[in-house]
Every structure is written in C-alpha cells, then in structure tokens.
Amino acid sequence: QVQLVESGGGLVQAGGSLRLSCAASGSIFNNNFMGWYRQAPGKQRELVAFIAPNGITNYAESVKGRFTISRDSAKNMVYLQMNTLKVDDTAVYYCNRYPSAFASWGQGTQVTVSS
Known about the structure:
Number of helices: 0
Order of helices and strands: EEEEEEEEEE
Largest sheet: 6 strands, mixed
Structural class: mainly beta
Shape: globular
Strand content: over 45%
Helix content: under 10%
Oligomer: single chain
Number of strands: 10
Radius of gyration: 13 Å
C-alpha cells in the first residue's frame, strides 16, 4: 500500500517562498518518476513538475524559473521549492508518481498566496 504525505504548505504573500515536502512509504522512488501536482478551486488537477530517477527535471511553463523539484531517494522524499509565488499558485499540492499516478493520493497540502 503506497502512502504519500505532503506537508509544508501555508499562507504566504505574493513574492514569498515555500518548500513543500512529500514522504512516501516504501521504496517507491528508486525507479519511478515523481511529480508534484496541484488543484486550484474549480479547476482540474495539473502537473507542476516531475523528476526522473536520474535527477532530470521538467516544469510546467507557469512555474518554470520559480519552482525547483528535488528528490532524496534514500529518505523516500520529494521536495518542491517554490519562490516568487503568485496568487495564481494558490492550490492544493500533491505528490505522486508520474506519468502514471498511484490510485491512492495523499491529502495534499494547501498553498494560499495572498496579494
């Protein structure tokens, strides 16, 4: 049973920074791409960034240059450093495997950016 636990969200002013963390049960990172996703109110869940087992990363255009995804496979952790946050970044953020997400999602972590 895969368990994903996201943390690190909060309320921040536009231009601020947050670092999200994702802890996973078991050794699921070693051979999997991992991604951070987000879902804003009234919108579909979207991919924000993903990271390959070898560390190669890719970002959505809307966050490129502001967000950085990283992983620590020894600790089964994935991180998302978010800088220069914008109001449009407000959403619940989730981590999961990419591109084929596990059926079981974590509870997510709320990020709210105020103007």
